[in-house]
């Protein structure tokens, strides 16, 4: 073991050593010493301690000079800040040119060479002693250097790291966070480089970074060295793994998204340690790592989270950097720190943003946060233009840099051409609570300086930049101390992108998950066109289908993967609460609008009463498409392990039709009762109510579809404006229908709920259903809290009435 005064090896470092080696290196030591035995691979290395930094400055008499230099500094005076910071860095760089440091660094480097080979490449990373505190991420504040070889170059890189304690951005950051410039010291971590320049690297979090949802591991990755992801100059691949089902033994990705990955950072030549090169087109169309590797990384992330949580004595979501070595093919963890933004959100304070009117979309990309903001465009092409920025403007750039942080905190919103949800712009925007849209492609080349825009991140994963200043509203949702009614209040949901956010609401699960929304938004191709691609006659459609399904062995695999991931994301978000997914309920005209759909759909005068719902599933015209739907749902339950998923059959006209559908589902591996599978039926046709005793023998429960049931009971086309005034769920005939449905289901011991906005829109309907003893009411997410109050009050009134009568 080394007896050096200023060198500490990873094997001798623990989390308690932050004062000596900083948060980053203390974490590396903890990872190396504690988790390597658990199978987590961490490259070896050493720290040049903060004592080396302090002693060097003391012996050089540098403290007084630095103190005078930084006294009274005004970070708003950008040019003066830059001048003083440069002088401070020069003082530190000169002070750390010491023979004892040179010898100790050279000796430690020789030990690494004995372990990894002559002239081994190392990463040299700054590690501040105040770094990674719970209220400050220090993301990108201090310098790091990659692909450093040889003892002389290594010492030079270490000195530059020490000097980076006084970059413009680091000085500004300490001022903003109330840190004393001279109570923060710097250590340097030196570790063997993982040859991710020949493979891939990335960042992962043990929660969803946008919502704080804690039951997933969120993995991002791109080809080459990881700096591109952190700097936001590349759009990475993204993956989600569901922690509870993974720990129960299921090995399946929950969700994946292919990133653009236009460039990759590789080793450089001569004086340039690294360089960016274009990613080959074929590689851009493939994920940078395979499913097995994603699952391996997720397992490592969970091990890291479990270890740090035990150390902290409380759940501790983690931010973890990883790299794949292109030579040995192995995956390494190269950094871990507690996540400091999403995990600190208070669940009792929910905010909901909503645009009040639509606008012309100028660009779209990945949404960061869930807010909406409006302002005038300020285009920033380089750091020199930051002086022009005014508070409340929308910062638009190709990508952001750590040097820009003093200005970013003044922005109403941030928009970048490049980057994923773990890029620099996203990290800082999230920390500041500023909405951001990243990865828009080329908005910075099209944006007009001074033009008014609205940036909306309120619609899930996709963020939009709209022309003009659009009106929007913000609703404060208080959930603390909320008393829930006996009746289950569930949500209607079709968009997987808002599932994690919606799951934070105090609901009892999903009463209606709309499969057709997922097919329309995330697949876009008619199921039969994927089951029978040779029957698609349009050459243009065939080409587009070929491009969309290029990664898959068969076109049908694309459908099963996309649909299972969409449904699975909703089921995972609410796990273990019930999620009832409704089989596709497009009308023929809606199916025909899907890619390739024209070849498989008849033309109908009244699609609302035509070839829809249960009638399609066992019919030869759609049987192969239905088989794909079943395959996707089977994958969710059996491969993903999400057995909280229940299946609902829509628009089932006759009992015999119901039998055929249930038999068809069983032949596709979805047998009622097997592995606890429950099959529900939409109760939305008068015949469902009239024959509810017979239908109850075939189904485990019912969900009243109040829209269609009202339409068919009153004979009113709900889409016709001219007779819309006659569409009213409060009609006495409708109340009778509701009563017959609820009482009939309960008479047969079957679960009964309603999925429609009637209970939210009309408190008297909610009271009526609660008095009947309905089991659940499912409404849109925005109506959940209002419906809870209405139903709770109705139950209270009913109980008071019973007590008075008794």
What distinguishing features does this structure have?
D-amino Acid Aminotransferase, Chain A, domain 1, 30 helices, Glucose Oxidase, domain 1, Dna Ligase, domain 1, about 800 residues, 4 domains, seven-stranded mixed barrel, alpha/beta, about 40% helix
Description:
With 806 residues, this protein is α/β, with parallel strands linked by helices. It folds into 4 domains: 187 residues, ATP-grasp fold, A domain (Dna Ligase, domain 1); 148 residues, D-amino Acid Aminotransferase, Chain A, domain 1; 129 residues, 3-Layer(bba) Sandwich (Glucose Oxidase, domain 1), CATH 3.50.30; 324 residues, TIM Barrel (Alpha-Beta Barrel). Helices cover 38% and strands 21% of the residues. The protein contains 30 helices and 30 strands. An 8-stranded parallel β-barrel has the order 23-24-25-26-27-28-29-30, surrounded by 5 helices. A 7-stranded mixed beta barrel has the order 15-19-18-17-16-20-21. Helix 13 links the parallel strand 18 and strand 19. Helix 19 crosses helix 22. The protein is elongated and about 95 Å long. The N and C termini lie far apart (83 Å). About 1% of the residues have low confidence.
């Amino acid at each position: 073991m080394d007896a050096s005064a200023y060198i500490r090896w990873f094997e001798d470092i623990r989390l308690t050593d932050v004062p000596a080696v900083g948060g980053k290196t203390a974490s590396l030591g903890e990872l190396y010493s504690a988790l390597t035995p658990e199978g987590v691979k961490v490259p070896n290395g050493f720290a040049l301690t903060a004592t080396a930094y302090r002693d060097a400055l003391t012996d050089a008499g540098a403290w007084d000079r630095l103190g005078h230099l930084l006294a009274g500094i005004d970070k708003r005076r950008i040019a003066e800040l830059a001048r003083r910071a440069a002088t401070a860095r020069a003082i530190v760089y000169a002070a750390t040119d010491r023979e004892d440091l040179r010898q100790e660094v050279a000796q430690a480097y020789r030990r690494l060479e004995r372990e990894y080979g002559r002239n081994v490449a190392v990463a040299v990373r700054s590690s501040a002693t105040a770094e990674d505190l719970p209220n400050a991420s220090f993301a990108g504040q201090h310098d790091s250097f990659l692909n450093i070889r040889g003892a002389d170059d290594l010492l030079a890189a270490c000195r530059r790291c020490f000097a980076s304690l006084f970059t413009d951005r680091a000085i500004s950051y300490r001022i903003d966070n109330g840190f004393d410039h001279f109570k923060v010291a710097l250590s340097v971590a030196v570790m063997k480089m993982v040859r991710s320049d020949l493979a891939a690297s990335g960042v992962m979090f043990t929660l969803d970074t946008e919502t704080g949802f804690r039951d997933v591991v969120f993995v991002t990755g791109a080809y080459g060295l990881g700096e591109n992801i952190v700097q936001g100059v590349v759009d990475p691949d993204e993956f989600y793994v569901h922690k509870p089902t993974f720990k129960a033994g299921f090995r399946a990705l929950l969700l994946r998204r292919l990133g653009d990955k236009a460039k990759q950072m590789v080793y450089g030549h001569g004086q340039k340690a690294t360089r960016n090169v274009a990613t080959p087109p074929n590689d851009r169309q493939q994920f940078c790592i395979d499913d097995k590797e994603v699952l391996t990384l997720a397992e490592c992330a969970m091990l890291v989270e479990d270890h740090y949580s035990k150390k902290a004595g409380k759940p501790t979501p983690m931010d973890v950097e990883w790299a794949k070595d292109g030579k040995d093919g192995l995956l390494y963890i190269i950094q871990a720190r507690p996540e400091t933004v999403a995990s600190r959100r208070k669940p009792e304070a929910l905010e909901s943003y909503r645009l009040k009117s639509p606008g012309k979309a100028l660009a779209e990309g990945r949404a960061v946060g869930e807010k909406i903001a409006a302002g005038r465009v300020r285009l920033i092409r380089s750091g020199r233009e930051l002086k022009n920025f005014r508070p409340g403007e929308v910062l638009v750039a190709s990508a952001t840099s750590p040097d820009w942080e003093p200005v970013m905190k003044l922005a109403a919103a941030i928009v970048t051409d490049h980057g994923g949800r773990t890029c620099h712009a996203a990290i800082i925007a999230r920390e500041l609570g500023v909405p951001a849209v990243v990865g828009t492609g080329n908005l910075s080349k099209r944006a007009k300086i001074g033009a008014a825009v609205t940036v909306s991140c309120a619609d899930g994963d996709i963020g939009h930049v709209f022309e003009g200043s659009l009106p929007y509203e913000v609703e404060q949702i208080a959930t603390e101390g909320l008393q829930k009614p006996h009746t289950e209040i569930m949500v209607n949901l079709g968009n997987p992108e808002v599932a994690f956010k919606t799951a934070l609401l105090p609901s009892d699960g999903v009463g209606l998950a709309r499969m057709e929304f997922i097919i329309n938004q995330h697949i876009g191709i008619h199921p039969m066109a994927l089951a029978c691609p040779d029957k698609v006659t349009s050459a243009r459609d065939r080409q587009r289908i070929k491009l969309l399904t290029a990664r898959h062995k068969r076109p049908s695999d694309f459908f099963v993967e996309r649909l299972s991931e969409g449904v699975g994301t909703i089921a995972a978000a609410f796990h273990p609460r019930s999620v009832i997914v409704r089989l596709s309920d497009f009308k023929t005209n809606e199916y025909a609008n899907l890619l390739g759909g024209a070849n498989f759909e008849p033309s109908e005068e009244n699609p609302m009463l035509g070839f829809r719902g249960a009638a399609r599933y066992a019919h030869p015209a759609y049987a192969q498409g239905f088989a794909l739907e079943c395959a996707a749902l089977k994958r969710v339950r059996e491969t993903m392990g999400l057995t909280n998923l229940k299946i609902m059959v829509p628009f089932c006209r006759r009992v015999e039709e119901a039998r055929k559908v249930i038999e068809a589902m069983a032949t596709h591996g979805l047998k009622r009762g097997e592995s606890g599978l429950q099959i529900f039926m939409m109760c939305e046709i008068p015949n469902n109510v009239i024959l509810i005793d017979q239908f109850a023998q075939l189904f485990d429960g019912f969900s009243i579809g109040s829209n269609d049931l009202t339409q068919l009971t009153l004979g009113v086309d709900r889409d016709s404006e001219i007779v819309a005034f006659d569409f009213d769920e409060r009609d006495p005939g409708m109340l009778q229908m509701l009563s017959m449905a609820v009482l009939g289901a309960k008479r047969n011991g079957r679960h009964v709920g309603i999925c429609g906005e009637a209970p939210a829109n009309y408190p008297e309907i909610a009271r009526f259903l609660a008095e009947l003893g309905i089991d659940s009411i499912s409404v849109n997410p925005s109506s959940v809290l209002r419906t809870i109050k209405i139903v709770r009050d109705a139950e209270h009134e009913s109980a008071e009435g019973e007590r008075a009568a008794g």
